[in-house]
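Quick question, first post here. What does this chain look like in 3D?
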Amino acid sequence: MDKFTTLTGVAAPLPMRNIDTDKIIPARFLKTIKRTGLGKSLFYAMRYDDDGKERPDFVLNKPAYRKAQVLVAGDNFGCGSSREHAPWALEDFGIRCVISTSFADIFYNNSFKNGILPIKVTAEQLEKLLDDAGRGANATLTIDLEAQEIRGPDGGVIKFEIDPFRKHCLLNGLDDVGLTMQEGTKIADYEAKTKAARPWA
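> Answer (accepted):
Ran it through. Tokens below.
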């Protein structure tokens, strides 16, 4: 997966609580196992009306936020059913970071494994970030993973916590497959020894 080091991008405000995975990517779009092409269906019911036309009042349909890379959302983001398609859809749209006061555990874990940084902040910090994100084209945040900082458009800085191992994986672009491949030499050595010891196997 792509490395996550420092991201500077437009932040879109979505101050709704309990945004579940079906809102993020509805079940009818889960027929694919490809990680690409899901961005167009992200938040489908909120982005489009019954005729498939864009709802102009939805934040990601507004000109200033069409290329948002950061999402500032309400409590309990990613709750509901466990579907890896949720972070796939966010990443395919261009969202690399989601900021909230809390996340559902499965979504939180899936995000790290798919190159998305979920950041937990306090309610007070979220209000400040929602205010920053409400500035339209000027709603630019810088997410510095190495320093564990969110830097706002007015120069304000919010520090955040992250598990060191997850931080290492994001900084180096390592998903589960990438972590396994780091042990490629040891795996090859083991297979060679096993083949020599049990040539019939």
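Strands lie at 6-14, 70-73, 97-100, 117-120, 140-144, 149-151, 157-159.
Residues 13 and 134 are 6 Å apart (CA to CA).
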